[in-house]
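notes to self, project folder thing:

trying the whole complex as one job this time. last attempt i did each chain seperately and stitching them together was a nightmare. two parts in total, labels are on each line so i dont mix them up again. if this works i'll redo the older ones the same way
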Amino acid sequence: MSPGSPILAIRDLAIEIRGRRLVDVTELSVTRGQIVGLVGESGAGKSLLLSSILGLLPADATIQGSILFDGTELRGAPNRLLRDVRGRRIAVVLQGARAALTPTLRTGTWIDRALVLHGIPAAERRTRVAHALDAVRLDPVLLRRYPHELSGGEAQRVAIALAVALRAELILADEATSALDVTVQAEVAELFRELRQREGTSILIVSHDLALVAGLADRIDIIADGSIVERGGPSVLSAPQHRVTRELVAANPTLEQAR
Amino acid sequence: MIRYVVRRPGLLIGLTILVVLVIAAVLAPSLAPFPGDAGNDTNLLETLRRPGGLHPMGTDLAGRDVWSRVLFGVRVSVGVSLAVIAAALLVGIPIGLLAGAVGGLVDDLLMRIVDVFLAFPSLLLALAIAATLGPSMEHAAIAIVVSWWPWYARLMRGEAAAISGRAYVEAAHLLGVPAWRVAVRHILPNAIGPVIVQASLDLGGVILTFAALSFLGLGAQDPTPEWGLMVEQGRSLTSTQPWVALFPGAAIMVAALAFTLLGEGLRERLDPKGRARP
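result (full assembly):
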């Protein structure tokens, strides 16, 4: 449990669908309290990689290699263990914001049911939710709203609040800010930074947005065609080696200027 | 909500007729001048009286008050139709949800079974089943349920499959929600709207189908005051004593119309495509 030990360690992970190898990662790890950015173009295998961590690959996918979460092998783990890990220990924040919240449930109900699902008693649910709302700076009034009554940024903070309330040790952010406008993107990025600071949460940010990741991550892994092709601190962007990294940097005008 | 209804004349008319029908069904014993005529009573001295006086809708071949029988007929015709729709939904929704939410082999298997049922025109299938089971009201109801549920299964399956791909369903899986609970709590409530709309539109159709089976002698049996049966009993008299068939026929039309108007109104409210984004 000491800081510096890996919370997530992926080794020799290969995922194939109908004979096509879509992910081939030799090594990817996240240390406790670390923010890692996984950047690549769409179709590079980022989402498949995330799904595989939580054991939710499509039925026709085959997977090889090792996914260690806090020392426990998740690949091929029994469903009971995976369901306990999902949400409670590893939270996923999806791109959709509003679209990722069930439209027929009030946000408060949505959060509460997830806490009930993971066996948290009623009294503790209240304190945890209060703390989480505070952490993401969300007005408790919003708990009585339905997703369509929220802004994109509010919806995304509801999703992050749930991760906080469940005390997730690792957050997988799948393009979590892509659908938001720029000021809200900055707010969410700031929230991630605070979560790491205050709760010690480790975060794996999957994105095609280099600028966002550069400002947030301790380390950046560039993924292309399912493999990690370049790795380093945020400085990796100022002297990109791999063709894909150069293209990603070139496609991002703000980064281009910053150089 | 009230303003919403008032601004839609179709929905308003449908709701008004429904309320009248419900009142008629509940109060039939006290509203009907001759409640016994809806049962085993006959009055051979009063056969085929013209509408007027004691008998606002006249009397039939057995001297029974048509108005009393039409009133009690609400209970039979509308009641049975509601029960038939409810039963068809109870079978169709779980099967469609299972197929749409699970997909793959389960989906293929269930939908091929549904296809077999849908291969026959539903009235023809209902007729065949009712004829096989023998003429009675219960058998007619069963026959309609059997020919009707596949429509709901297929509609539900399509909606559930579409909803299964939504981000919030993925999010529920990622939160560790067991698959069956994802289906029931996250997919079902978001997919059921169009099915409910279809069911309310179908109520009129079921009333007509049930009346048709009774008309053909495969549904309700005399002396049950079922509208379709009453039309059948007055069929040969239409040129001389039209009231015997006319009034129950009008009742069928009014009830079917009410549910169609209601269904259209509900569609506007529940269909995602028709819903205004608040």
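what i see at first glance: Strands of chain A lie at 6-17, 20-31, 35-39, 61-69, 72-73, 90-93, 170-174, 202-207, 219-224, 227-232.
need to look closer tmrw
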